[in-house]
TrEMBL record:
This is RING-type domain-containing protein. InterPro entries: Znf_RING (IPR001841), Znf_RING/FYVE/PHD (IPR013083). GO terms for molecular function: zinc ion binding. It comes from Rotaria socialis. Residues 16-55 form the RING-type domain. Keywords: Membrane, Metal-binding, Transmembrane, Transmembrane helix, Zinc, Zinc-finger.
Amino acid sequence: MFKYVNEDQIDIELKCTICDEPFEAPMNCATCGNTYCKSCILKWLEKQASCPSCRQTGAAFQPVISRVVRNQLNRLLVQCALCKYTGIQRSNFNDHISGTCPKYIIKCSNNCGWKGVRESHQQHLITCRQNPFPNSLSKFSNIVFILILSTLLYWIFRRSDK
């Protein structure tokens, strides 16, 4: 649900040669040391029993544990496909989606069955039938209106009695 910002400027050493994208869960071939995305190499191995680079049959693959590589990948900037915001590091993308993306579809926090974009949730809560605190301001306004009307009617009828 994101695309890379300035993808043409991403170091080729951080890209999988199978999908040509920056590594996701990078895995190294134990024989030649070439790196691939975990999902890419698993799909490859379903069809071919060898490493795409060294062609070693039955080659073992292990997760990349280099903190430097993982940090470089995590710092890559991405653009959210939903809201188009571009200032997100790849490692923070899930936080953006789960917490702040205004275009992400969410369910009503009151479990009323409503689904909509996060930016519409506050507006929905005003009219939500399950809202334990419906729009307090409108209720207050109605109470004030009734008090004023009652007072006015009281004075009108009181004067007419004289």
